[in-house]
Amino acid sequence: MSSFKLVGLAGSYNRPSKTFALIDHVATLASEKYGFEKRLYDLTDVGPSLGQAQRQGDLDAAAAAVLADVVEADAIVIGSPTYKGSYPGMFKHFIDLIDPQQLRAKPILITATGGGDRHALMVEHQLRPLFGFFMAHTLPTAVYASDRDFTDYAVSSDALKERIGFAVEELSAFFPLNELAAAE
């Protein structure tokens, strides 16, 4: 098992979810390529204590464990559904509970889903500045997927798969030795 951990977080409560399917697809490819230990979560895994929490210490054990996995990850795949041009409030609230130093210098691959193309810049106008505040390394290639990129909650678009491949390749700047080890 790899000593490096990749955590995927989908900012959605829905199950099944295209956002979760997207982070699962991305995280699986990255884990296969670099040998990461992979863990995936959505807001349902965080649970109901999130809405009442004003600080990390207010989270129940399940939510605290998810938050700990996110901040202790070596690499993170973030996925957010797009609502009215931005990320959902409870997703932002979860991120607000993280101390900025906890994500400093971490590679983060940002993704988002939405109903159509008019939300495509959400990754650049909402997610990239959010994680820039945390001084994280958002990878240059962000991934946006619309409803037409999925079939039965699975990534099916060749163009989307190609873009995901570009983004996953960018992790090699942070994990070049893992890439060599995974190839052996």
Automatic annotation (TrEMBL):
<protein>
    <submittedName>
        <fullName>FMN reductase</fullName>
    </submittedName>
</protein>
<keyword id="KW-0285">Flavoprotein</keyword>
<comment type="similarity">
    <text>Belongs to the SsuE family.</text>
</comment>
<dbReference type="InterPro" id="IPR005025">
    <property type="entry name" value="FMN_Rdtase-like_dom"/>
</dbReference>
<feature type="domain" description="NADPH-dependent FMN reductase-like">
    <location>
        <begin position="5"/>
        <end position="148"/>
    </location>
</feature>
<dbReference type="Pfam" id="PF03358">
    <property type="entry name" value="FMN_red"/>
</dbReference>
<dbReference type="InterPro" id="IPR051814">
    <property type="entry name" value="NAD(P)H-dep_FMN_reductase"/>
</dbReference>
<keyword id="KW-0288">FMN</keyword>
<dbReference type="InterPro" id="IPR029039">
    <property type="entry name" value="Flavoprotein-like_sf"/>
</dbReference>
<dbReference type="InterPro" id="IPR019912">
    <property type="entry name" value="FMN_Rdtase_MsuE-like"/>
</dbReference>
<keyword id="KW-0560">Oxidoreductase</keyword>
<dbReference type="GO" id="GO:0016491">
    <property type="term" value="F:oxidoreductase activity"/>
</dbReference>
